[in-house]
Amino acid sequence: KNEVEQSPQNLTAQEGEFITINCSYSVGISALHWLQQHPGGGIVSLFMLSSGKKKHGRLIATINIQEKHSSLHITASHPRDSAVYICAVADNTDKLIFGTGTRLQVFP
Amino acid sequence: DTGVSQDPRHKITKRGQNVTFRCDPISEHNRLYWYRQTLGQGPEFLTYFQNEAQLEKSRLLSDRFSAERPKGSFSTLEIQRTEQGDSAMYLCASSPTPRGAYSNQPQHFGDGTRLSIL
Asked: Is the confidence at residue B99, as pLDDT, over 90?
């Protein structure tokens, strides 16, 4: 069993839909990261959180430390949101353990 | 902030050859990480540096792999006697030193070096 599990693996949506991507982890962590990866490889950090909830524009990330679970929500999805979204957890060295990613396609 | 730079972007080589990749982190970042990503998978940790010191290496990093960060700035990752299984995207990331004992910092990623072994 992987230390970081994401669901779903693939997700398609119509423009405007509300999207949720889930992440569960089985190890002790000091922070959880949500990352976005576009075709070609570039990875962008979206959120780093260790408790509660963070919001940036149309993106919201939540974490429940007791349940070892996090969710990434995208409101009013847009085709430009199409990418792979990766959950990663960090220990106190900041070394990241990654999930396998969720491939999101948003159609107009 | 010019971002994390990796060179080359793509490398195609024959099996058995040696390859070296370079990563230039964001200038004030003390920590530098190397990850490897195969197709359809999430990245996997290889090694990381705090300044010039290599503090941890993954079991994935066989003795054919070596990484250096000689002056605490840029880093190189060398693979000797490449094998088909080394084909992957090699990602570098950097972050500032955490402010407290257990605080974390976001990592800034380069665009990666895609290695193809023929």
From this structure: no
